[in-house]
């Protein structure tokens, strides 16, 4: 945890309402037997919407990810380029940011691993985007048996 002075730890907060809204969009399309819009991102069952609220927006420098997985598994964190309070039900694939953060924990391991270069670049990008946003939305994809309740994650900045 970011207990030291000058550090700001911003947690990933599950947005169940937005997740439900996106799932309803998917169900609606299925019931009407209609195809999604060209390039529309539909939420898969293992994907959930999370948000990070920036209590401070300027002069943030990315330090690290603090991802804790209670059980072995993998989570992929994808940022979105939505600027306003989003209606993510019509999220387009082109609005998904790269790189993504991929975090995993192997059976028997204590530490969570990641692709360091992508995670670093992604974190720096989040710090840049914080300057123009009070909230940022993310799609988290869970795999290999990991569930949302087994994740506690945050982004740590030097403020």
TrEMBL record:
InterPro entries given in the database record: Olfactory_marker, Olfactory_marker_sf
GO BP annotations, alphabetical order: sensory perception of smell; signal transduction
A Gene Ontology term for the protein's cellular component: cytosol
Gene3D superfamilies named in the record: Olfactory marker
Pfam family of the protein (one): Olfactory_mark
Official protein name in the record: OMP protein
């Amino acid at each position: 945890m970011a207990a030291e002075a000058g550090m700001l730890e911003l947690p990933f907060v599950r947005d169940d309402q937005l997740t439900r809204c996106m799932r309803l969009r998917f169900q609606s399309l299925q019931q009407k037997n209609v195809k999604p819009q060209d390039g529309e991102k539909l939420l898969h069952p293992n994907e959930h919407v999370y948000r990070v609220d920036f209590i401070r927006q300027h002069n943030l420098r990315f330090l690290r990810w603090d991802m804790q997985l209670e059980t072995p598994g993998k989570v992929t964190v994808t940022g979105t380029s939505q600027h306003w309070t989003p209606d993510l039900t019509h999220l387009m694939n082109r609005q998904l940011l790269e790189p993504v953060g991929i975090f995993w924990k192997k059976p028997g391991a204590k530490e969570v691993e990641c692709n360091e270069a992508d995670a670093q670049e992604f974190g720096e990008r989040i710090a840049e985007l914080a300057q123009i946003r009070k909230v940022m939305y993310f799609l988290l994809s869970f795999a290999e048996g990991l569930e949302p309740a087994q994740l506690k994650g945050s982004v740590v900045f030097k403020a």
